[in-house]
Structures are given as C-alpha cells and as structure tokens.
Design a protein that fits this description.
Helix content is 78%, strand content 0%. It has 152 residues and is mostly helical. Helix 1 runs antiparallel to helix 2, helix 1 packs parallel to helix 5 and helix 2 runs antiparallel to helix 3.
C-alpha cells in the first residue's frame, strides 16, 4: 500500500474532529492539508506522463486549498456568513465528488496505477468519498442552526 494513502487519512480525521466538535478551524485545516498532499502528487504524475487529467486534479485541489485556508473566524450567525459557509461546503462536496468520479471512471492516466496498485486507488476513492460527505454534514448543521453562534 502506498504511504501517501496512509498519510492522507490524517487530514480526514482532522476534518472529522472539526465536524464532531463543531470547530470550523479544524474542519478547514483537514481539507487544506489534504490539498497539499494531492497537488504535489498530481504535478509529479504529470511530469512522469503528461496527461491533462493530472493538471485537472491539481487545479481543483488548488481551488480546495484556496477555499479552505484556515482562519479563526467564528460562525456569527449572520446570513452572509451562513450563505458563504454553505457555498464553501457545497464546493468542497463537488470537488471531492469529481475526484471520486475520476478515480472510478479510470481515466487513461490511471491505467498503470490500476494494474499495479488497485487497492490504493480504492482507498483513495473512499477517502475522497468521506471528504465529499463531511461538508454535507456541515451544511445540515448550519441550516438547522445547530452550530453555536460566537462573536469574532
């Protein structure tokens, strides 16, 4: 099994901790750290075999890194913050759903990996699936007003 896949589970647990404890900083930190595992890996894969799908992966996870740059702003209950939070979470859902679909559809760029490391791709797909589901939980908590309102 690829060591990168094992390391990738750490950000998953950080984001899960953030959702369970309802702490936005840890929620965002997990996604941010995960982005910086994917981006260099995809760039190195692109250098090895210039396939545009690696650039696509690096780009969408670059967007994820921008969206999830951790900050210590608290949820203040305003409509603007709630709207921004929901849009961010839906974006994270779509980014990781795209990753699941691209891995599942096995684009030509992953043929070598499937033949030599099929289990790693399955685990990577599960990790992206978990990262796709976590923001939906956050949306539910935000829409149902179950997140504590704090001042900044």
């Amino acid at each position: 099994m690829d060591a990168l896949v094992l390391i990738a589970t750490i950000p998953v647990f950080i984001s899960l901790y953030g959702v369970i404890k309802k702490q936005r900083f840890f929620f965002l930190l997990g996604y941010f750290l995960f982005s910086f595992l994917v981006i260099p890996d995809e760039i190195s894969r692109y250098i090895d075999s210039p396939n545009i799908s690696h650039v696509l992966f690096a780009t969408i996870f670059g967007l994820q890194a921008i969206l999830t740059f951790p900050n210590k702003l608290n949820y203040d209950g305003t409509k603007v913050f709630k709207s921004f939070g929901i849009k961010t979470m839906l974006s994270l859902f779509l980014i990781n759903l795209i990753a699941v679909l691209l891995i599942n559809l096995h684009p030509d760029s992953l043929i070598d990996d499937v033949q030599t490391n099929g289990q790693t791709l399955t685990i990577a797909m599960i990790i992206h699936g978990v990262f796709a589901l976590i923001p939906l939980i956050g949306c539910y908590l935000m829409l149902s007003n179950k997140i504590e309102v704090r001042s900044n």
